[in-house]
Structure formats: structure tokens, C-alpha cells
Design a protein that fits this description.
By secondary structure, the chain is an alpha+beta fold. It folds into two domains: about 30-160, no CATH class; about 160-195. The protein contains two helices and ten strands, in the order αββββββββββα. Strands 1-2-3-4 form a four-stranded antiparallel β-sheet, with no helix packed on it. It has a four-stranded antiparallel β-sheet with strand order 5-6-7-8, with no helix packed on it. The longest helix has about 40 residues, at about 160-200. The N and C termini lie far apart (about 70 Å).
Length: about 200
């Protein structure tokens, strides 16, 4: 158990250290953007492999700039960024089932250095696409994926239809709760301020 004196000394050291000016040294890594242009670029989800094992190719999503939840009409362009060729963007596919947080589960397939997988919608059903970098071909699997086995042998998935439905249900419940709270407040105002005035008249 840490003593009170040690705790205070450690806290003071951290506080003073945060006030000291930051000096860059040779060991610091510079941060460089790997995409450009007017469109929005990002990668999701946080636990997915974005860069291949060679360190040359990075995955990303590209979409027109807008600030709202996406719909089925909003198509996400999926690309591979060549980090050794001036961060060249190469489109490999697209998806109409994606979100700002998790993207479309875009990732490299473990154990297959030239294969990329992501989720999409086809004829009203969720599917997943696998792109082969060398063959430049896409094949479709009849189910979406949520996470992959570390060796790339199998995948786990959830029922995205149910996830979307219950998400909407939860939003409706929140709305109803807010409406009830608002109505209670209005009733209190009516009873306290308006009703006495009506009664006096």
C-alpha cells in the first residue's frame, strides 16, 4: 500500500512535469496524414488489422463529407493505400452497411497476406466480401463477419438485423422517457402556477 507521503510526492512530481516545456528529440515519431482531399477518410474498428504484415499497404474508407448517421443510400468506398508509392489510394470495393464507429468491419484476413474482408448488403441481406490483392478479384460470403479467428480459419458474427432493430427500440424508449419527464414537469407547472389562477377567477 502506498504511503501518504509517497502519494503526495508522486502527485507533485507529475503536476510539475506537466508544466515543463516539451522538447522534441530524435526518438520522437512524426505523424503524417496518409489520405488527402475533400472527402472524409477513416478506419474502424479499433481491434481490426489496418496495415498488412509487410507494412506497405493500409486499409481505409472514403465517403463524402456529411454530419449525420449513414443510410443505405450512402456508399462507403473501400481502398488500399500504398505507403511506398506516395500514399496512393486504390479503390478495391464499396459497402452500403457501415457506421462511423465500426466502419464495415474492414480488415486483413489473418494468415492470408493478400486478402481483405468487409461487410456489405446484397439484395437486402448482409454479406461479406473478400478481396484478393494479387488476383484483384472479389468473392462473396453469405454471412457478415464481426470478428475473425487469429489464424483466419473461421469468423464469428452477430445478427445485425436484430442489432439495428433493438438499437431503434432503445432510441424510442429514450424518447418516451424524455417525453414522460417533460409531461411531469408541465403538470407540476400547471398545478403550481396556472391552476390557482384559474380557480381564483
Amino acid at each position: 500500500m502506498i504511503s501518504r507521503r509517497k502519494f503526495i510526492n508522486t502527485g507533485a512530481s507529475l503536476a510539475l512535469g506537466s508544466l515543463m516545456p516539451y522538447h522534441q528529440n530524435q526518438n520522437d515519431k512524426m505523424i503524417h496524414p496518409i489520405t488527402s482531399g475533400a472527402k472524409q477518410h477513416w478506419f474502424g474498428y479499433y481491434d481490426k488489422q489496418q496495415i498488412d504484415h509487410s507494412g506497405r499497404f493500409a486499409l481505409g474508407g472514403q465517403v463524402d463529407t456529411f454530419f449525420r448517421s449513414p443510410t443505405l443510400k450512402d456508399e462507403l468506398e473501400i481502398g488500399i493505400i500504398d505507403l511506398q508509392q506516395g500514399n496512393q489510394w486504390n479503390k478495391i470495393g464499396s459497402s452500403k452497411t457501415w457506421g462511423w464507429q465500426q466502419g464495415c468491419m474492414l480488415q486483413w484476413v489473418p494468415g492470408a497476406s493478400e486478402q481483405v474482408i468487409w461487410n456489405d448488403v446484397e439484395k437486402g441481406k448482409y454479406v461479406s466480401r473478400i478481396y484478393h490483392l494479387g488476383k484483384k478479384k472479389i468473392r462473396t460470403l453469405p454471412r457478415p463477419i464481426y470478428t475473425l479467428d487469429p489464424k483466419g480459419k473461421f469468423a464469428l458474427c452477430i445478427d445485425f438485423h436484430r442489432l439495428q432493430f433493438f438499437g431503434q427500440v432503445m432510441d424510442m424508449r429514450r424518447l418516451l422517457v424524455r417525453m414522460v419527464i417533460f409531461l411531469r414537469q408541465m403538470i407540476k407547472v400547471f398545478i403550481r402556477w396556472i391552476w390557482p389562477q384559474v380557480s381564483m377567477n
